[in-house]
Amino acid sequence: TQLLEQSPQFLSIQEGENLTVYCNSSSVFSSLQWYRQEPGEGPVLLVTVVTGGEVKKLKRLTFQFGDARKDSSLHITAAQTGDTGLYLCAGDVGSNYKLTFGKGTLLTVNP
Amino acid sequence: IAGITQAPTSQILAAGRRMTLRCTQDMRHNAMYWYRQDLGLGLRLIHYSNTAGTTGKGEVPDGYSVSRANTDDFPLTLASAVPSQTSVYFCASSPFWDTGELFFGEGSRLTVL
Questions:
Q1: I need a surface site. Which of A101, B61, B78, B104 has the fewest CB within 10 A?
Q2: What are B12-48's pLDDT values in tens digits?
Q3: Contact across the interface for B106 and A90, Cβ inside 8 Å
Q4: Which residues from B are below 8 Å from A100, CB to CB?
Q5: Do B42 and A104 lie within an 8 Å CB cutoff?
Q6: Is the backbone peptide bond immediately before B75 cis, with ω within 30 degrees of 0?
Q7: SS3 per residue for chain B
């Protein structure tokens, strides 16, 4: 059973379009992280959300944590080719502080 | 440049051979982790260390061992490699064990034939 379900699995869009990817679980997370991974590299942390209902913005990226702390979304405005990559959500259930990762959304932004 | 260094970058190994993947960090982070990443399965935790001198098992520890003799180094050993251990291995570190904010290395691609 996958603890963190990410959707869509694949997304291909044109430069300038908006998009939203989702991270869902039946478990409550004490915190949730979003990472981006480019080919041949390790994941890089984008943001941590902790409080239910929290919204964080990172330039054109907007992250939201669900009120019940079971889900999160990442919205990208006016996507650029540099946004291409694998977007991973990760969280720890309860207080064991060992991250579980979703399988990711592979985003391709075409010029 | 500060960060995590993994070695080797890539390795092809015969089944049954012993292999150690090296991981060194210079950020003085307390916690370190080993993950494997496989197509369709995502990133899975193999072993972790909350602080020097302690280690723990993750989701998929069988066939792997680790040691944490000091803060900077966290090697991962495959005692007798099997083809199912073909994967990309990532080492990561974190300032504290109770945070999900990990810094990852570039990865080691291992092929077991």
A1: B61
A2: 999 999 999 999 999 999 999 999 999 988 999 999 9
A3: no
A4: 45, 59
A5: yes
A6: no
A7: CCCEEEECCEEEECCCCCEEEEEEECCCCCEEEEEEEECCCEEEEEEEECCCCCCEECCCCCCEEECCCCCCECCEEECCCCHHHCEEEEEEEECCCCCCCCEECCCEEEEEC
The b/e string for B14-30 (b: 16+ C-beta within 10 A; e otherwise) is eeeeebebebbbeeebb
Using CA atoms in the order B104, B68, B109, A10, what is the torsion angle rounded to 10 degrees?
A: -40
pLDDT, one tens digit for every residue, chain A (111 residues): 558 999 999 999 999 999 999 999 988 888 899 999 999 999 999 999 999 999 999 999 999 999 999 999 999 999 999 999 999 999 986 556 678 899 999 999 999
Given the structure tokens 């034939």, which residue do they identify? B113
